[in-house]
Specification:
alpha+beta, Cyclic Phosphodiesterase, Chain: A, 190 residues, four-stranded antiparallel β-sheet
């Protein structure tokens, strides 16, 4: 039960960033802020790679989700190459600004697929869009933005992120932006 007496929480599964990668992503984000003033930038402590957005769930479902994450650790550790700037749905009309994350061994796709199938068995719908690992760094405030062509780079990872943990995050939406907290962290050492 949360502080309001509600038994539902807004949650998602993600991969945390190392301090080095967080600094690297913040440097990239900083290079964008002057040319994209109409973007709300993600707080540094909220940067992560999303695996599976669950949405609202009952507190009673958390145990099954945590068990699913523990079983998914067979796909860890994995390494993501982090780099490149992009936007969803497109560079010219972006609502979400991101830094790319790429896995040459496709372990992240297997991890995602496992979590997607497992969450569906618990009662959560599958994602309709194709999974593309990324780190969201900003969101357009009102209307989509155009990422300046000089800022766009092809996916060319320059920093490597070793992922050993999966985190179940709670997300609380506020006027100042989302606030994330860790519900459970599982990993290869568990």
């Amino acid at each position: 039960m949360n502080e309001n007496g509600d038994t539902r929480l807004r949650v998602f599964m993600g991969m945390p960033l190392s301090p080095e990668i967080r600094c690297y992503v913040l440097d990239i984000r900083e290079s964008l802020t002057g040319c994209l003033p109409e973007v709300r930038w993600v707080k540094p402590e909220n940067l992560h790679v999303t695996l599976k957005f669950i949405g609202c769930c009952d507190v009673g479902d958390l145990g099954a989700l945590i068990d699913l994450m523990k079983n998914a650790c067979v796909y860890l550790p994995l390494t993501l190459g982090v780099g490149g700037i992009g936007g969803f749905p497109s560079q010219g009309s972006a609502r979400v600004i991101w830094v790319g994350a790429k896995d040459e061994e496709n372990k992240v796709d297997k991890l995602y697929g496992y979590l997607e199938r497992g969450a569906e068995k618990v009662g959560f719908p599958r994602e309709k869009r194709h999974y593309r690992p990324h780190i969201t760094v900003g969101r357009a405030r009102r209307t989509p933005v155009r990422i300046p062509p000089g800022m766009v780079s092809v996916m060319d990872p320059v920093k490597m992120l070793k992922v050993e943990d999966i985190v179940l995050f709670r997300s609380v939406l506020k006027k100042t932006g989302a606030e994330y907290s860790v519900i459970e962290r599982v990993g290869v050492k568990d």
